[in-house]
Structures
1.
Amino acid sequence: MEYMIGDFSKISRLSIKTLRYYHECGLLAPVRIDNTTGYRFYDENSLERVRIIEELKDFEFSLKEIKSILENCSDDSDIKEYIVSKAEEVKGKIQKYNEIDKKLEAFIYVKLAESTSASFIEHSGKEEDLNMANRTSDIIIKNIPDIISASIRFKGKYMEVGKIFSKIYKNCGRYSAGAPFSLYYDNDYKDEDADIEVCVPVKKIINEEGIECKMLKGGKAITILHKGSYDLLGESYKTLIDYINSSNSKIIAPSREVYLKGPGIILPRNPKKYITEIQMLIEE
């Protein structure tokens, strides 16, 4: 039985515009066109071809690819090569988008951790915290809580810390729960082979290859808030060390640098706006 294009549109669930486009691109031709009226007619075989086209579209084949398949394949065995090739293409896209997804998550959770920390500094109701935020020379003694951290310990240069953070956030960003920080195990400044552990607080113990996840013990700490470039951290360390020496406090290694506000991930931030809290645990 033949159907005029309007009726065939209802049966096939394709608009007249789509049927005309399929005709123009050689994908689905009418079985005949009336010479007088120009009306297009379709039949049962046309409906089967529509079914095949729609199924291949569900597999993400382009119309150009579908046309090639219909022109070159007579049964399922002929189409196998196209299907295998499409499956590999889809796997490649999945891998690519998984990588993009991890990067986006890392970006989102780094910004979330940073904004949470900044919000704490700017809006805390505790007078000592407000003073600490506004005066970089103030020494604050406080209790640091235990923290679950995802970390990577390495020996290298201080400038390598950033890329290590990127690796941790790429794999663990969705679990982040606060401002990132570094632990420094050396008693002195080192140009090479500095013993550093890069840490990201996380909500729970997680398993990621190459990343250690553990409970990091807190305790009583002498701290100072440094505002400005990392190049000037020495000034805040001096204030901190002077206080420690004058108070006869005994330090428990390692020292910590908590990066409450650091370089932007995409848009660079003025180093003058960096906020770093230096923490040194002491014996009680």
2.
Amino acid sequence: MVAWTAAETLSADAGMVPRSDGGCDVTTPAVPWSYAVVLPFRHPETLDAETVGLRVQFELEVISGSIGVFATGATTDAPLSRELVQQAGVGRTTVSIDAASESSRLWIRSGPNGAARATLGHVRIFSRRRFDITAVIDEVLPVLLRAPGRVALAAVASALSERMGYSLLPDEIGALECRRAPIRVPFDRLFTDQLGRVVMDSTETLISLMPTYIASKMDPRDGYLGQDHYARYLRQSTIRVNYLLEQLRAFGVEKGSVLEVGSLFGQFALPLRQLGFDVTVIDRYRAYEGAFDGYTECMRAAGVRVVETDRTDEGALLGALGQFDVVICMAVIEHVPHTPRELLRTLASHVVPGGVLALDTPNIASYWNRKRLAAGLSIHQQIDSQFFCALPYEGHHREYTAAEMQWMLAQVGCRRISTGLFDYNLLQFEELSREHVEALLAISVDATLADTVLVAGLVDGPDSGAASQ
């Protein structure tokens, strides 16, 4: 542990007061994005050829306003890390900033709203190194696929610690490599608990119905592709469904009423019903001219209430459905061609006070999107599909970051907002190629690279001003 003592104040309107517990109190100028304080820290002594960077970890509580924090070197003001921006209302949390190996200072500045007050606690500095996990890849692969980030790194640290004979901390893992490829995707070991078995059984039922899906009635330019594509989509979506069910349990919700807006094949509705929820779904099935009749019949046979709409009456039919303990809207918000505000307000209005609103959506900051941008390629839909589509275009109009999804849920009255980042595209393959293994390892270390964001929060009511936690 290192105490925050020496500091440089950069503005007459800023201040830093050391605390007796080794932390410090910081005030920033009233001007947005104005630099306030520089806090130096010592390098760890374990830098070597395998070191890929540093992790600066400290306790942070923003009392008012919002602050930005990033790392620099000793002789340059250029950022050597991403900037962490945190606002008041989150409470006291432990935060981490991953920075280049030569970093030695933290810069603190006001956020977009100007004046801020914050308390920083003890700091820990970790050297982050590259580790070869070829010998343990079969052991840890299910966790890497299911839970990137902290959970995945904890599994890797545990497996490597046994082999190396000393305790490796997850914070010391900065990069992973594996010299094996291809690697079989272990579907039989991914979801083995009660929830997982329900999800997998439901998925097999829905895949068996794929011959009833009439692809010719759907426009492929809007993303409605063939049976093989959707069979893979349903298998991939097992992780999306599992994440939702785990999130509901984290909120203490194991029974009650559920409304799903935009249900399509029923991959969420069917397992929710099998777990005992009272499920209602609504989608434009009437407009699809029977393409999904096999699936709507399956849901109805399971006890799901199916509301079929088209564009002319979906608003009225949705408005008449009343309130539910849980409202979900999965992989829909990215299809909204204008502001998502009205959709989110409508969804929140159908949640009973204290109930749960949950959405998932593609992460615009995913590994593959970053790779395409680095190559000068677009991250949007194929231009010919959108250019030649029938109006209105129903593909992806905008994808979002995790922070944007959290912010939007807060705007419609959600609190205790929880965010999950996971990767579902890798589950379409029987085997992972070397390129896919590299992607998986990068996502395991940095979950912000995952391709899917799931956010959920408790709904108090519109304009409550609740901050995400």
